[in-house]
# Entry
Amino acid sequence: MQGFHFTEYIPDLDKKSPFDKLLEIFTELLTYTSGDVDEAIEWLRELDKAHDLTDENYSVDDFIEDLIEKGYLREPGGKGGGPGLSAKGEQMIRRRALDQIFGKLRKGERGSHRTGRSGGGDETSGDRRPFVFGDGPDRIDFTESIRNAHVRGGTDAFSLHEGDLVVRETEHKTSVSTVLMIDISHSMILYGEDRITPAKKVAMALAEFITTRYPKDTLDIVVFGNDAWQVSIKDLPYLKVGPFHTNTVAGLRLAMDLLRRRKTSNKQIFMITDGKPSCLKTDDGYYKNSFGLDPLIVNKCLNLATECRKIKIPITTFMIAEDPYLQKFVEDFTEANKGRAVYTGLGGLGEWIFSDYERNRKGRR
# Structure
């Protein structure tokens, strides 16, 4: 007799090895401790005591030895005396962040380059074609055009006509230069709410996403507090909030400087913040106002937003706090730039970042 035999479903909780189970927890702890291996291990031991994560066959000490043997940690004896993260360990954290955020996205949302609306052509293909009205002068192949003029009229009566001009064909690819600005002011951990860890996870995931999936794209990371400075991808796990105000102007200026150096046609800025601009650097030092939207500071921000619009750099602002004053600033800022504003909780931050990244790299000419 054919048919189906139903039994009680008992999930296989032991599919993962003890090492893999602890690795997931340990990677998450490293993100919260800003890459402090000793502190993460201490937390892991406390969790083990409270929840029996290990048994007599595999201990936390065994796990640490495996981490070193597999290359995730450097041998003890370096800075601080204990083990430290290796390059492989730093990439492990970025991949973990990528998996966490992509796990929330629906199938098909990752996108690919298959689209009818590609970015501006920025790579020559080697092919040539006759000049037509609308072609930019930067695409004219003057060597070939002058040769055509010589062939047509000779050297005695040289003249260059429109019919002599040829242009270099370009491949229309959607390469994008992105600057991700992360607010590291004190408000990112104010009132007991951790906002820096989700922002840091997004930065790590975006970095891993771009470097592995779109290697011709570029990503620069800018952090801003009282000042703004660039950090490398390998520094992302170690980001910490400081006793800073929010100097949005410094962050925008640095982001614009970085994008001006990029030769790609498509450029964009993502800004993750939870606070009103409250700081400005002047010739006399720092001008700070923590209590409201100071017109001097706000107008500087709006002027930079307008300048970005003029040079075709859209800004997408991700506001991760419910503050009516901040919301009013973001609305004015977005209007000045003609960009986008996303009012999102911490849970949806990663999904919005990736959805917008895919949209921007496909939709701009």
Remarks:
- The chain has ten helices and twelve strands.
- Residues 196-213 form the longest helix (18 residues).
